[in-house]
Amino acid sequence: MRNRGAFPVIMALSSALLFAAATPVSKLLLSESTPVLLAGLLYIGAALGVLPIVFIERRRGTSKTYDKTSRWRLIGAIICGGVLGPIAYLFGLKLAAASSVSLWLNLELVATALLGHFIFRDYLGRYGWMGVAGVVAAGALLSLGDQASPFAALLVAAACVLWGIDNHLTALIDGITPAQSTLWKGFAAGAFNISLALLLGSSWPGAGTVAVALLVGALSYGASIALYISSAQQLGATRAQIIFATSPFLAAALSALILSERLGAFHAVAVAALGVSVFLILRDRQVHEHEHAHATVEHDHSHRHDDGHHTHVHEGLPESTRHSHWHRHEPLTHRHPHWPDLHHRHEH
């Protein structure tokens, strides 16, 4: 089986950087908008951001067929990750400094790892758990001496649990592309949150605030979510989330730069600990190898023909070309290093 290389890791890191920029900018926007209305604008922006990608996919004939299970996963992702999670996060951000909220976002990693291990069959080995512990320790180190509101921390923690559920649901969706998934989530969650905000009496902010919110949504939510889903479907939600865990540290640095918030002396040590933690979770891939069986399955997702699992033939199409269509997997038993992607959610 051909090694995937660094591409899914690069996608996860790019997703982290884009999402990191949202925290300090959203803190500024909250002075002109309510949290619920801003959540709606950000997700409408996310949908608009991926709309050109969806049009391109449709022109190329990318399939949109998905089964009932994936439909319910998408609905769950919209509710948890698009409606409830952002509202809790933005209320917490309104009550606390952006740098503090950035650091608390490390809890999303913990939530994703625990949910993955105990519910979604996205298991971690010894090195993986060492990586989780390292990221949590780095976040705790950076939080020393923090005097922020406990209620704000509770709101951000709730958002992280909801996003942890969302991470696993979106990683398991097949039949629609990451851009299509983001489009559905953005329009549905954005429309709901904007309607709820107006029903609760929120007034529209100025045109400039709306434009900035839509732009932040397009980049920090739309492009970021699409990149994250693409990465998670190849690495598994927990491993993609470990890499995405760089985002809180990047957001803290951007908060200091944009909002002039003070950063403590522990940052250099924490960043080093984070780097070691990411290495450990990537090292976990090397030890996860065993004989496993694949049952017959039919589904639609992005794939290549050099991965050892997609053996159907396309005349004239190079094996390394990524494409998407409805296809059938015949029963197969083999052994190779793997991560818990769409084809490897088995017990071991």
Q: What report would you give on this structure?
A:
This protein has helices at residues 7-29, 35-59, 68-95, 98-104, 107-118, 126-142, 150-172, 178-199, 207-235, 237-244, 246-259, 267-287; strands at residues 289-294, 297-303, 323-329, 332-337. With 348 residues, the chain is mainly alpha-helical. The protein has two domains: 7-290, no CATH class; 292-337, no CATH class. It has a two-stranded antiparallel sheet. A two-stranded antiparallel sheet has the order 2-3. The model is unreliable at 344-348 (pLDDT under 50).
Quick structural summary:
The protein has twelve helices and four strands.
Helix and strand topology:
Elements: H1 7-29, H2 35-59, H3 68-95, H4 98-104, H5 107-118, H6 126-142, H7 150-172, H8 178-199, H9 207-235, H10 237-244, H11 246-259, H12 267-287, E1 289-294, E2 297-303, E3 323-329, E4 332-337
Antiparallel strand pairs: 1-4, 2-3
Helix pairs in contact: 1-4, 1-9, 1-10, 1-11, 2-3, 2-8, 2-9, 3-7, 3-8, 4-11, 5-7, 5-10, 6-12, 7-9, 8-9, 9-10
